[in-house]
TrEMBL record, chain A:
Any single Pfam family the record assigns to this protein: DNA_pol3_beta_2
SMART domains, per database record: POL3Bc
Domain DNA polymerase III beta sliding clamp N-terminal per the UniProt entry, residue ranges: 1-119
NCBIfam families in alphabetical order: dnan
Recorded family membership: Belongs to the beta sliding clamp family.
DNA polymerase III beta sliding clamp C-terminal domain sequence ranges: 249-366
Principal subcellular localisation of the protein: cytoplasm
Designated name of the protein: Beta sliding clamp
Amino acid sequence: MKFVVSSTEILGHIQAISRVISNKNTLPILDNFLFELKNGELIATASDLETTLITTIPLDASEGEGVIALPAKILTDTLKEFPEQPLTFEVDPQTLAVKLSTENGKFSIPGQNGDDYPKNPEKEQDNIVNITVASEVLLKGVNKTLFATADDELRPVMNGIFIELNNNDLTFVASDAHKLVRYKRLDGRSEVESSFILPKKPASLLRNILPKEVNPVLVEFDDKNAFFTLSNYKLICRLVEGKYPSYGSVIPMNNPFKLTIDRVELYNTLKRVSVFSNPASNLIKFELSNNELVVSAQDIDFSISAREKLMCQYEGEALEIGFKSVFLLEILQNISSANVVVALSDPTRAGLFLPYDNDNADEDVLMLLMPMMINV
Amino acid sequence: MDAFFASVEQKDNPELKGKAVAVGGGGDRGVVAAASYEARKFGVRSAMASKSALKRCPHLIFVNPRHSRYKEISDQIMAIFHEFTDLVEPLSIDEAFLDVSHNKMGLPSATAIAEEIKRRVKEETGLTASAGISVNKFLAKIASDYQKPDGLFVIKPKMVESFIEKLSIEKFFGVGKVTAEKMHQIGIFHGKDLKKRSLLELTRLFGKNGAYYYNIVRGIDHREVDPHRIRKSVSTENTFLDDIRNKEELKIRLEELVLDLYRRLQRTKFKGRTINLKIKYSNFEQITRSRTVLHEITDYKEIVELSNNILDQLELTDSIRLLGVGVSNQIKPNEVVQLTFDF
């Protein structure tokens, strides 16, 4: 088994898949990349048992076929340091030692038997659902929702993005029970109605490999796993098991008071004022009346306070409502329009945050945030 | 009460009278819970390792603690307090604040009440107590510590200023070892030094405690005697017979502790948002780690999972002699809380 590959080409691919490797592996072999040479192609795999990322690396030349596992850290650390040049990998089938020949040198790396590497999960052919999604749609769905996922060991379903497909649209939902994001795409329909919960880790891996993808992505899933097929990558991940809460019931239907405001201006104000909020609560107060928004915060313990007045468009009764500044900032950061619309009803109910205009006629973005309240 | 646990033991067992007694485990791993005045002369203090206590006082007699007995006497004392006023705020098993602005016995002065209480305590329990009398909690507490044992000290309103000015900073109720050290470094040794600092300066140096120090050094303490003082935390801990290194074994011990904690939570009806894990290594180095969630933790399973989770993330640097677990951070009235979706 022997192959010749461009140093930057192989580095780019293995760096992308190395993000899968966990630093707390239970199986030592998972500290390796699995390389498989077959039909003149090199397929590299990294896995943590739950998530597996596979890439196909174009070769300059190859000889023979076979599999070998090579230590990920040594390989990436060395390859990083090479200027662009062809590298020759040669595997000794007896000792499994790998000789790496470069322009000026020879490096030797002990390999491990590739057959010991865990096998990828199989698709359950009888109940597999598949859908082809534009890479831009998938990327945006993940990007808009990932920040709102929870970190809750006790409710694992909340730790992922709920992806729902049906005849009309493709919907991405994430919530940590305080904030909720629903990102809908009317141009991502599916014939079957189905859903799955994508865990955070594969979601953030997708966020890394999708931007370069130009072709539509094939998404297949069964009860246990999802399989994403891109031009150069294949991502397999175990899904979060369980039922996602019926999020629709928490979306307020009637929030009559409407605030329209410059998003960046509000964001910058919040950044300044939140420094003065109590670090335990991060409470920021909104006082709304007559096209004016007063944003204030205070920390009595340290006798500090801040208050800024912003011009806005406000239709509704005078209202005072409190929010956690960190959540507000995250939401404003994940809305892209110049102006944001906030629909409110009373200080105990969720506020609805909507972009003033969408980037795209086929999208529908909705963000929800529960307020903070004085305990009685 | 004066040297409470030790005095109870000396009273119940006359052979111990007049001798250096320490309540607590006397073995290699024991700790002194209380020391009699005879033992204190040799420098034996509570919370000291029994081994070092024996070094200071080789003839020290160790007695195993009998908590139910102390509780019994504590109840007796508290009952006596309640005969004088309803405004009794227990500070620990053997001390309490009493607001005697109105007293049930119609006694003419606070001093008369204190004398009467001390007499009754002596008569009914055979033990001596020390009383401190003043215009607020801060001063009363300092007064009670001023003349131990069997003391009675009054800080009268007109004495307050000069008394606090002369008081050394480590005697201030609410100033611990670390704060005292910090104050020494910036030249604060007595009340009068503290009084020279502005509120702004103290807030800068001590954060939210700054305002407290600013006020108490002026004799200002408006905290009321609260008979229903809110409990701040519930916890339980255990010192192992042998140090434990193995995490799996620790987890078994942790689960036993959590079960005990859960019973305590149910009994006290306490609810909090933070789980605390306390670990003392065999070299006596102590660490605490906590996890806070946004809701009140009431579920047994959740306590197990959260505390296990803290343990999982800990890298143990040594074997462990003591493990403790507790719940704190109650949602207080008027506190701001983040609301949650109902799903």
